Amino acid sequence: MLSYRILAPGRRSEDPLRLAAEAYAGRLNRYAKVELVRLKESDSAGEAQAMLAALSPKDYVIALDERGLNLSTQELHDALLTYNGQNLGRIAFLIGGADGLGAAAKKRAQATWSLSRLTLPHRAAQMLLIEQLYRAHTMMRGEKYHRA
Hints:
Elements lengths: L2 E7 L6 H13 L4 E7 L4 H11 L5 E11 L2 H13 L4 E6 L7 H6 L2 E4 L7 H19 L8
Parallel strand pairs: 1-2, 1-4, 3-4, 3-5
Helix pairs in contact: 1-5, 3-5
């Protein structure tokens, strides 16, 4: 069973995108363990240090950056199937704040993916990532959420 840890800057304030991310995380928890970790917002170097401190040495780390590998939903599904077969353990996704991901966080990542070539607010990126993970897991189960 796949396990995810999603690290992003953020506050506990009521925000529609945060609420949507939490709703999708609740759905995703039926298929995989998901943990949302919100870090205190600071500059990219400070955020990177907080992210590194929140990671386990065993985590498979994927940085999200608009210059990363741009996957289709089907390719995401296929990648997750591969990761599941490799028993990678926990997959940690790193989402940067207003200044992007710090160099130390990018260096720790084994892969860099893009959700879009557009620069997205971190709250939107978090919600999109979790929704796509949920979609990929419903595809793995042959459920009807995904309509290709």
